[in-house]
Amino acid sequence: VSLQEPLVQRALARGVEVSGDIALFASCAEAPIVAITGSNGKSTVTTLLNEMVKRSGRKVLVGGNIGVPALDLLEQPVPELYVLELSSFQLETATAINAAVSVVLNISEDHMDRYKDLSDYSKAKQAIFNGAAIRVLNRDDPRVAAMAESGKQQRWFTLGIPDEGEYGLSEQGGKQWLACGQQRLMRAADVGMVGRANLANGLAALAMGDALGLSRDAMIATLADFTGLAHRCQLVLHRNGSAWYNDSKATNVGATLAAVNGFEEKLVLIAGGDGKGADFTPLHTIGDRLSALIVIGKDGEKIASVLQDSVPCQRANSMTQAVEMASKLAAPGDSVLLSPACASFDMFEGFEARGEQFINAVRGLSNG
């Protein structure tokens, strides 16, 4: 329920305390909490950190915006650690989580049909730091970096070269490494997930894991084994010299920018859906990364209008048609990427259904 609902506004005007399930959970939890949010990557990082904690030999429960509702976790035996994925909606009423470690992974336009502007949305995300013992922040994201506060314990991650105590990327002998300061931890090529955005996710998880005192060996082994979640830069198959990737979970512009910029090869991009009031203008920066654009859904034409001067654009009326078009447009060495930059509900039951239709259509091509 939005805080802007008239009933809620009347309650606030009368001085009534308005709280949500996350604040109630935090007041009852008997184990430390790790709280994770961001416009993109939060489910991946939540799942990745969960695997790191388990591999380090600790009992952990995961929930919030992923899997089990937070309050339902209280019905289970108390673990050594709670890991919560939290959305901006949940954070609106989370007055004090008092987490052991909190992270904001990134901020980009999303839910602009709910928030008056990006600053309003960012403010909701920032509530995750209320009472946090340690903050983990993205040095590369100006809106996240602005959440830093002097006198607070803070850890930083970046896709640049890390300063001492930061987590980032370094080079040695022509190889790229995940590093903490000058200490190289593992080769980037050995990370199981695809794309530069997932290197950032891995670095954030390492920063949180170190703050929690997890085993470095366990964290590095997890990063090597963990291949990511379905519908997030998920490799479907190789066909006629092209790799096909399902990134249906990219429901906002920031997610699609991160996905596209994570590839070195040229891409045939399938995008479009319900933009939720988003500004698609930032997509103009990826024109030189694309060999073709195929748009679908309610706001597909808005995406095409941003990129039509820099890349050939076509319109498809269904996912099957989009995949068929992509198979004809992709040259050997190109990859085909479904990364919609939009929600799915104009055409599908959800991003999972959209991704499954893409996978089935692609596999149908391989058998044809």
UniProtKB/TrEMBL annotation:
Coiled coil: none annotated. It is found in: Cytoplasm. The keyword Oxidoreductase does not apply. Residues 36-208 form the Mur ligase central domain. Pathway: Cell wall biogenesis; peptidoglycan biosynthesis. Its EC number is 6.3.2.9. Signal peptide: none annotated. GO terms for biological process: cell division; peptidoglycan biosynthetic process; regulation of cell shape. Residues 231-342 form the Mur ligase C-terminal domain. GO terms for cellular component: cytoplasm. Keywords: ATP-binding, Cytoplasm, Ligase, Nucleotide-binding. Its main location: cytoplasm. One of its GO terms (molecular function) is ATP binding. It is an enzyme of class 6 (ligase). This is UDP-N-acetylmuramoylalanine--D-glutamate ligase. It comes from hydrothermal vent metagenome. The lineage of its organism: unclassified sequences, metagenomes, ecological metagenomes.
